[in-house]
TrEMBL record, chain A:
Domain 4Fe-4S ferredoxin-type residue range list: 102-133, 142-171
InterPro entries, A to Z: 2Fe-2S_ferredoxin-like_sf (IPR036010), 2Fe-2S_ferredoxin-type (IPR001041), 2Fe2S_fd_BS (IPR006058), 4Fe4S_Fe-S-bd (IPR017896), 4Fe4S_Fe_S_CS (IPR017900)
A GO molecular-function annotation: 2 iron, 2 sulfur cluster binding
Identification of the protein by name: 4Fe-4S ferredoxin
Limits of the 2Fe-2S ferredoxin-type domain: 6-84
Native organism taxonomy: Bacteria, Bacillati, Chloroflexota, Chloroflexia, Chloroflexales
Protein species of origin: Candidatus Chloroploca asiatica
Gene3D superfamilies: 3.30.70.20
UniProtKB/TrEMBL annotation, chain B:
Record bears the keyword Magnesium: no
Alphabetical list of InterPro entries matching this protein: FAD-dep_OxRdtase_2_FAD-bd, FAD/NAD-bd_sf, SdhA/FrdA/AprA, Succ_DH/fumarate_Rdtase_cat_sf
Protein name: Fumarate reductase
Active-site feature positions: 375
Classification via Pfam families: FAD_binding_2
Domain FAD-dependent oxidoreductase 2 FAD-binding residue range list: 95-479
UniProt KW keywords: Flavoprotein, Oxidoreductase
GO molecular function, one term: steroid dehydrogenase activity, acting on the CH-CH group of donors
Presence of keyword Chaperone: no
Coiled-coil annotated spans: none
Upper classification of the organism: Bacteria, Bacillati, Chloroflexota, Chloroflexia, Chloroflexales
Length: 258, 549
């Protein structure tokens, strides 16, 4: 039997609505009768289009969340933020080089960071945002890239920052510089691309294209499979690129929602 | 209801059985099916073969194609504008119009610039924000045969077999042959793919692949790709209009596509775009909720592009086949339908029934795997029931850390881990409940290997196009496909735009479509494209008054 959820009261844009407990903020807004145009994108925690500000009863703080990833609470008072305006200077990644001051040159405002940690506290992804801004300021592109990797550009941090920093744009440039210049290029890839460009793979594909349906089927059934088991395990934070250096501790999140 | 660590007591009992069999299952995998076994299972349990779920299309170039009712409804619907709409004032006069700011559209616009078009003479228009799309949501990865053990020919075989040999071979050839070029382009754009210390990609297996060729960026592969592509497009100065979906294409007096009508979702103004070439990259259809399945897709995935293209007479292909991803979240209810990436199985997690037993090879092609889950729940009654009356099978997530070492889940699957943690479940300790979810369109607008549709001036790329994957797509081939065909369509459309001046705008095809509806005896007040699904609560809608304000 499906159980009926009890109703709770939440305040949306200053008005009270009764909605079933257990809904996400986004589902509750829709339940209340709003058809969303802004404020909804992926509906799964990946696009950052649903940043929401709210207060809780009996608490002086402002909380921030993704509407699609957060459950309603009784007495919560919320508003959705459409977006945080962003204007950045264009750059050409092919001509800039990763120097210690590259990020600072492109985003001079990071020098104004007062280390208040508001960005970190407000990030719905639980990222150490202040740390990646500080790393950018020090010219540690690698650290900035790795710490900001899970950023979904929701802009919540930027809306709260007293220094008006565009955190997600800083992280993005750090990651592109890291991906392009600091990580070594894949050796096999370059060889394969060269082979394709000189037409070395053409003959084999021509052969397959010329096969009859039955011949193609039997070629498919006779495929050999790569053995996976004996590989050296690639997941080691010290040996591989693009692995989290300071794995964020989600224990808090587990306790809050548990 | 008693909940412990995220699960109610009844589900905990089944989890205990999963834990009891875990050590014996390590290193022992259920055998894969033969082609004949696959076929029998699909016929008996895949939603595509469900009796009564489809009806044939009654008119137009796709007449006779059997479509799910939800999709057929869109074709059998009236246009949102009349043929008499005033087209005299052109708001944007451009060389290239790209409809849809997801992956394919952004790639197409970038490559049109690389092929010589002035970025200021390109317009990208999109329904929500630039990048709010299925592309951003892709987690698992992108295929490309770039290791010495692998080859484009091997990739070709996998794609053809995965699609049950219904694919268009020349499109598959383009896909596998361009794949390494695309990955290299991404490397040059600074995308952070997972690599080992010497720069080799860390490549995983995927359902239906015979080599490890899945490149990923943790489990945020699509997010990383989309934000880099969007940044590149911005840096090139390509104009993008957000919250302005296309509601109808425009033709010239010779029937060539020559632009579109956009609607500003907030002010409801329409805009007329005249373009020498037009590319449709509107993505998929998950939000139609075929057969009432939940979906993994983003809010704007409502098949608009198919409707737009059909109205100007473009040929469609393979739309009878829809992809249900085997592993959609089935619990907790707030996550219903959200995608659990195939990478979880790629890293060793096994699907299990309520008794903790394996019942299927973990990495069959998606349609086969999904059918096996449906059979386990429906026919065999071995699924696990949730308090909301959903049914699912277990995916034994903790095996990933057992096989690859503690910390792997957090490092390789941070999005998955974070999503479950938000709803109180720790997937490093407990299995997760899954059931098939509506995921991918498979078929779409028919094109040649340069993205050209059957209508001059109109190109298509990405999920909205059909033929590459035949009737079933393998994981990692659609991120690839939007790059390969986005690039090809962008370059081909740039050439077309240089050679064909824009003509006089017309909506004659809208009048013709209305006439076809009439002749087919279809009387309806339904309109299409759908633009956005409606999730407003029933209680609220019951009291809704449509009054002028
Ligand atoms: C959750 C999830 C996970 C996935 N994981 C993988 C994976 O691991 N590997 C893989 O290869 N593939 C994966 N896929 C599939 C893949 O992401 C998509 O098929 C692919 O990104 C589609 O790209 P696209 O550019 O064609 O469409 P999209 O990226 O969806 O872009 C379409 C755009 O068009 C816009 N649009 C729609 N209608 C209109 C209109 N009328 N006017 C203007 N604009 C419009 C939309 O708003 C959207 O921005 C996944 C998909 C989902 C949903
Ligand atoms: S909110 Fe702004 S000023 Fe405060 S720590 Fe973060 S970046 Fe620095
Ligand atoms: S770093 Fe800022 S923009 Fe990125 S996810 Fe966190 S709050 Fe959002
Ligand atoms: S809607 Fe995309 S993150 Fe919430």
């Amino acid at each position: 039997m499906s159980e009926q959820a009890p109703l709770i009261t939440m305040q949306l844009m200053g008005k009270n609505y009764r909605v079933p407990a257990g809904l996400t903020l986004m589902a509750a807004i829709e339940y209340a009768g709003y058809k969303l145009v802004r404020g909804a994108g992926c509906r799964g925690g990946f696009c950052g289009s649903c940043p929401t500000l709210y207060r809780r009863e009996g608490n002086h703080r402002i909380f921030t969340a993704l509407a699609c990833q957060t459950l309603v609470e009784d007495g919560m008072c919320l508003v959705q933020m459409p977006f945080v305006p962003l204007i950045t200077r264009p750059y050409d990644l092919y001509t800039i080089t990763p120097q210690a001051n590259t990020l600072l040159q492109h985003f001079p405002e990071i020098a104004g960071c007062v280390a208040c940690n508001t960005c970190t506290r407000s990030c719905p992804q639980g990222l150490p945002v202040m740390d990646y801004i500080q790393a950018s300021l020090r010219g540690d592109i690698e650290r900035a890239a790795l710490l900001s990797f899970d950023c979904i550009s929701c802009g919540i941090c930027s809306s709260r920052c007293p220094a008006d920093i565009k955190h997600y744009a800083v992280g993005l440039l750090a990651r592109r510089l890291y991906g392009k210049y600091i990580t070594p290029n894949a050796p096999d890839l370059a060889e394969r691309v060269a082979a394709i460009e000189t037409g070395d793979v053409t003959a084999e594909l021509d052969t397959l294209m010329a096969l009859s349906a039955t011949e193609l089927r039997s070629r498919y059934e006779q495929r050999t499979f790569e053995v996976v088991a004996e590989q050296e395990d690639p997941y080691s934070a010290t040996r591989s690129y693009n692995s989290a250096m300071d794995p964020v501790d989600y224990q808090d999140e587990l306790e809050v929602s548990g | 209801m008693e909940i412990s660590d995220g699960y109610p007591a009844a589900m905990r009992q089944s989890i205990a059985r999963v834990e009891a069999t875990r050590s014996a299952r390590l290193g022992r995998t259920f055998p894969a099916m033969s082609l004949d076994e696959r076929k029998a299972l699909l016929l008996s349990h895949h939603p595509d073969y469900k009796a009564g779920a489809k009806r044939p299309l009654l008119f137009g170039s796709g007449q006779g194609m059997a479509l799910n009712h939800e999709l057929a409804d869109l074709f059998e619907a009236r246009p949102l504008v009349r043929a008499s709409l005033d087209l005299s004032k052109i708001d944007h006069d451009v060389d290239l119009l790209v409809i849809g700011g997801g992956g394919a559209g952004t790639v197409a616009a970038i490559w049109a610039v690389k092929a010589g078009l002035d970025p200021r003479k390109i317009l990208v228009t999109t329904k929500l924000r630039h990048g709010d799309s299925n592309s951003t949501m892709a987690q698992g990865g992108i295929q490309a045969a770039d290791r010495p053990e692998d080859s484009p020919a091997q990739h070709f075989l996998d794609v053809m077999g995965g699609g049950h040999f219904t694919n268009q071979p020349e499109l598959v050839r383009a896909l596998v042959q361009d794949a390494p070029l695309i990955i290299q382009w991404h490397e040059h754009l600074g995308m952070m793919y997972d690599k080992d210390a010497s720069g080799h990609f860390i490549e995983h297996p995927g359902g239906g692949t015979s080599r490890n060729r899945m490149h990923s960026a943790r489990d945020y592969t699509g997010l990383e790709m989309m934000r880099v592509l969007r940044d590149e497009a911005r840096n090139l100065g390509i104009p993008v209009i957000e919250f302005s979906p296309v509601i109808e294409l425009l033709c010239d007096d010779e029937g060539r596509v020559s632009g579109a009508v956009l609607i500003n979702l907030e002010t409801r103004h329409y805009h007329i775009v005249r373009a020498k070439a037009t590319i449709i990259t509107t993505g998929g259809l998950g939000r139609l909720h075929m057969q009432q399945y939940p979906t993994t897709n983003h809010y704007g995935a409502t098949a608009d592009g198919l409707v737009l293209a059909y109205r100007v007479g473009a040929r469609l292909i393979d739309l009878d086949a829809v992809q249900y991803h085997p592993t959609g979240a089935a619990f907790p209810a707030q996550m219903a339908g959200l995608l659990i990436t195939e990478k979880v199985r790629g890293l060793g997690a096994q699907p299990l029934n309520c008794d903790g037993e394996q019942f299927v090879f973990p990495l069959e092609p998606r349609d086969v795997e999904a059918s096996a889950f449906i059979r386990e729940c429906a026919e065999r009654g071995k699924g696990i029931k949730t308090p909301q009356d959903m049914c699912g099978v277990w995916l034994d997530a903790p095996m990933v850390d057992l096989i690859h070492g503690p910390g792997t889940i957090r490092e390789a699957l941070p999005a998955m881990f974070r999503m479950y943690a938000r709803f109180g479940i720790d997937m490093t300790r407990d299995p997760i409940l899954v059931f098939p979810t509506l995921h991918y369109q498979n078929g779409g607008i028919a094109t040649d290997e340069h993205g050209a549709t059957s209508v001059p001036g109109l190109y298509a790329a990405g999920e909205v196009m059909g033929g590459v994957h035949g009737k079933n797509r393998l994981m990692g081939n659609s991120l690839l496909d939007f790059n390969v065909f986005g690039r090809r369509a962008g370059m081909a459309a740039a050439t077309y735009a240089r050679e064909h001046p824009a003509g006089k705008l017309s909506l004659a095809h809208v009048a013709a479509y209305e006439a076809m509806l009439h002749d087919a005896g279809i009387k309806t007040t339904r309109t299409a494209p759908r633009i956005l699904p409606d999730y407003r609560g029933k209680e609220a809608l019951d009291r809704y008054l449509d009054i002028p304000l």
